Amino acid sequence: MIDQPARARDFGQSRPHAGENPPFLLTTSSPGRSQRRLAVCVLVVLVGALVVTAPFARIPLENTEALLPAYAAAVFVNEVITASLLLALFSVQRSRAVFALSIGYLFSGVMVIPWALTFPGVFESLGLPDAGLQSTAAIATLRRLGFPIFVLAYALLEDSGSSARVSHGSARSVILAGVAGVVAIACGSTWLIVTSDDALPGFMKDTRNVAAPWQYVPATAVCLYLVGLCVLWIRPRSVLNLWLMVVLCTLLIEIVILSYLSAGLRLSLGWWAGRLYGLLSASLVLLVLLSEKTTLYARLVRSVSAERRAREARLTAMEALSASIAHEVNQPLASMVTNADAGLRWLGRQSPNVDEARAALKRIVDDGHRAAKVIEGITTMFKKGAQERVSVNMNRLIEETLRRCRDEARLGRISVQAELDADLPPVMGSPVQLQQVISNLVANAIDAMTAVAGRKRVICIRSARRNSDAILVSVEDSGTGLDPKYRDRIFEPFFTTRSDGMGMGLMFCQSVIEAHGGRLWVTDNEPHGAIFHFTLPSADDPPSTAGATVR
Amino acid sequence: MSTDQSIVFIVDDDPSMRASIESLLRSVGHSTRAFATTHEFSLGEQPDVPGCLVLDVRLPGRSGLEFQQQLARSNNRLPIVFITGHGDVPMSVTAMKAGAIEFLVKPFRDQDLLDAVHRGIEIDRAHRAEATMLAELRQRFESLTPRERQIMAPVAAGRLNKQIAAELDLSEITVKIHRAQVMRKMQANSLPDLVRIVDRLAAGTTKP
Prior knowledge:
The structure holds two protein chains of two kinds.
Chain A: H1 3-14, H2 33-53, H3 67-93, H4 96-118, H5 135-157, H6 171-195, H7 216-234, H8 239-261, H9 269-348, H10 354-382, E1 390-392, H11 394-411, E2 415-420, E3 427-429, H12 431-450, E4 458-466, E5 470-477, H13 505-515, E6 519-524, E7 530-537, H14 544-549
Parallel strand pairs in A: 2-4
Antiparallel strand pairs in A: 1-3, 4-5, 5-7, 6-7
Chain B: E1 7-11, H1 15-27, E2 32-35, H2 38-43, E3 51-56, H3 64-73, E4 80-84, H4 89-97, E5 102-105, H5 110-142, H6 146-156, H7 161-168, H8 172-185, H9 191-206
Parallel strand pairs in B: 1-2, 1-3, 3-4, 4-5
């Protein structure tokens, strides 16, 4: 948990453009095509609604004061929730820009309360002291001009590097101080406005109609909105930036309706339409935040489950590996024990048979070497990164392996052919591992042919140059071939078509070949059997592919 | 040791393991024959002496367990001692249920293998003795005439000559003569002896 903010910070710094690997924060991820389209649609609908309402803007709607508290409450709740979600984002991301924006929303939300309370004719029944004629307009001015300034601050602070980050420990105190400051400013300014009504500019002629000084307010607001839009436009496009631009547009429409189309006439149709735009703008970022949260949560769940699956797969592979090791080591071990027992019995007879005992001892020596080879192979397999890669002559390796397999092949009456390319370039790799791959493939081929009757049993190993930078080795058999329905699964650990098989060999081969930067695959042999092919990068060229795949 | 009249077959794909088991068995006087696959084993001739099969579970081609079933299907009752590198319980249960003598996990104690092989040979010897005896009795039975066979069953069931004569509508003296023939041909010294022989024949025909 501790490194999470730090990581978010790193993402913000190193990839501010949220390019090929977007960090999944609202402020850093770039909006998708559908999001952009949605934003444009919203704007089109809003402008359309503006055009429709424009002719009727000045129709007064009487006795609608009662709707005002509901409107104010909705705006207050929406903006405060938006502010708290943004503050939560800030506590993760530590971006001053996000902090400024959340303070802006909080300020705007909190200022709705005195605005509604001082509105003429709304709360008279509560017995509040009668506020001056200009109070409501003055509070509205503060609110209207304050919010775009905070948005502007957000847009300017955003993406200005590490200086815009708040240090780790102080997020909580910064949030507390910010909230307290906003509440204090809201209370203080309200008190000032209410108590010094006479000193305020004469915004209003009466409770319904605005006076000439008011004209400066919408003009300033429009300027601020336009500047905000411009700054956001030239900034890198994040999801939040996109929707803030939509918000500023709705606010722009609101001010146009409120102050120009309805000529500032309070409680007219245009005035209420403007209020609806205000409510919409207060809700937009909230909606975006909520939907993004849901998306992020779904993404999180997906990635957690993917991680869990990957871990299970790793465990299975580990189990498979240990089972294979146990088997590979146990085989020579068992043989050694029985040979030693036999030797002891030959020597313990009334007339000891030294020749038999010697033969048993000789077999023990061979088994010991066999076990050591297995251990060596395992060790090299585990030391993947640091293992010794030497130049390997694949042809020699193949011949050596075939010499070892020859007895077994002869037992199965299988003829073994080799068609080796004399000009084969060397490869870089582990001779032990590669030899094990070849002997596994040959052993598989022999197994595949034991059940074959009525046709020739032939194994053919070919080596050849492939392109300029790789070699190709193939092991062909005339055995039973591959069942198409199993073809995709033969490289999985524990998959075997033999009732007694471990299903380890091909998985091992594949991991070794891939660790060497090559590929292993299988095709059908005509008319019978299967061909296993693998490629390896040749050592003539710098082994860039080999290096890349060795983990 | 009196094992010169027996043979132990070994099927294991690992050459060193195969040689070591052969050597161990030969060191105590068994004669052995080793094969790398079950296929080779089936191609080889099986001499008519008591024997035992030491069979690896994990083999190229057909596995040991499958081969056990195949032998059972072809009525080959050669006792089997399984050896395996990675034994698990279900595998051993399958093998033992199908009549294996022993299921040894490599590396095993030499005495365990020798004991199992010895037991297997003894079981096979007993099987063979039983089979020989049964064949002998069958031969004797074959030498009876239809009438004698007809009379042997009620005699063995303990019925009196008089009763048999009444049932088959024969004179008592005829029954007596046939009965004496049956006793002679079946080489039965007494009535209980005959009863035992008939029981064996019946058991041998229902359960081969």
